[in-house]
């Protein structure tokens, strides 16, 4: 299945070493590219973003991870790219400059755009709401989260013997 969002076609390639990934990325003739050098792991990825119609290269990102690509996330947040490498979450602008980096402290459950100015980063034991500049607006630590539900801008978090309700807009 092709991954198309905002007229961008995303293709992910996996490599066994960093040199192969970097060389492949360089051969894509992307207008912009970045190597996330602080991330390492068993696998190396090159995410190539192409125009969905013309297939012209727009950008490429190289990083390492211990995670399989099915467990990683990329989110287009207007002019920002939010990428989860399994170790960190990066906010990258369209010129491939890192605006912010957040360390992941427990396995990531998911990313959720609350509105144009706020992003929810939910881990198995930690919640953060961040601004487009990467400023943490809210953070909360939990016991292991078993289930979540969102209803009318409220996040319901179920743990072993407890439920917490978080107002996403306050």
Which descriptors apply to this entry?
mainly beta; 170 residues; globular; Lipocalin; single chain; 5-stranded mixed sheet; Thrombin, subunit H
Short précis:
The protein is mainly β and 170 residues long. It has one helix and 16 strands.
Strand order of the largest sheet: 1-2-4-5-3
CATH class of the largest domain: Mainly Beta
Largest sheet report:
5 strands, mixed
Radius of gyration: 17 Å
User: Helix proportion of residues, in percent?
Assistant: under 10%
The residue ranges in which pLDDT falls below 50 over 5 or more consecutive positions are none
Give me the CATH architecture of the largest domain, please. Answer: Beta Barrel
Q: Write the CATH fold name of the largest domain.
A: Lipocalin
Helix/strand order, N-terminal first: EEHEEEEEEEEEEEEEE
What does this structure look like?
The chain has two domains: 1-104, Beta Barrel (Lipocalin); 105-170, Thrombin, subunit H (Beta Barrel), CATH 2.40.10. It is built from one helix and 16 strands. It has one helix spanning 18-26; strands at residues 3-5, 8-15, 32-36, 43-51, 57-65, 73-77, 80-84, 88-93, 98-103, 108-115, 118-123, 126-131, 136-141, 147-151, 154-158, 163-167. By secondary structure, it is mostly beta strands. The strands form four sheets. A five-stranded mixed sheet has the order 1-2-4-5-3, with helices on one face. A four-stranded antiparallel sheet has the order 6-7-8-9, with no helix packed on it. A hairpin with a 2-residue loop joins strand 1 (3-5) and strand 2. The relative contact order is 0.12. It is 5% helix and 57% strand. The mean pLDDT is 92.
């Amino acid at each position: 299945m092709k991954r198309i969002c905002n007229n961008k076609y995303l293709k992910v390639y996996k490599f066994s070493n960093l040199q192969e990934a970097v060389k492949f990325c360089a051969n894509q003739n992307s207008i912009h590219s970045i190597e996330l050098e602080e991330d390492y792991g068993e696998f190396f990825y090159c995410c190539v973003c192409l125009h969905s119609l013309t297939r012209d290269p727009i950008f490429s990102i190289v990083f390492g991870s211990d995670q399989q690509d099915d467990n990683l996330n990329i989110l287009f947040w207007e002019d920002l790219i939010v990428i989860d490498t399994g170790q960190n979450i990066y906010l990258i602008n369209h010129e491939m400059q890192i605006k912010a980096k957040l360390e992941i402290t427990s396995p990531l459950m998911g990313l959720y755009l609350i509105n144009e100015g706020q992003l929810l980063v939910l881990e198995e034991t930690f919640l953060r709401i961040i601004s487009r500049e990467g400023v943490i607006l809210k953070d909360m630590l939990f016991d292991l989260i078993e289930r979540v539900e969102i209803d009318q801008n409220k996040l319901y978090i179920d743990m072993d013997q407890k439920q917490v309700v978080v107002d996403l807009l306050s």
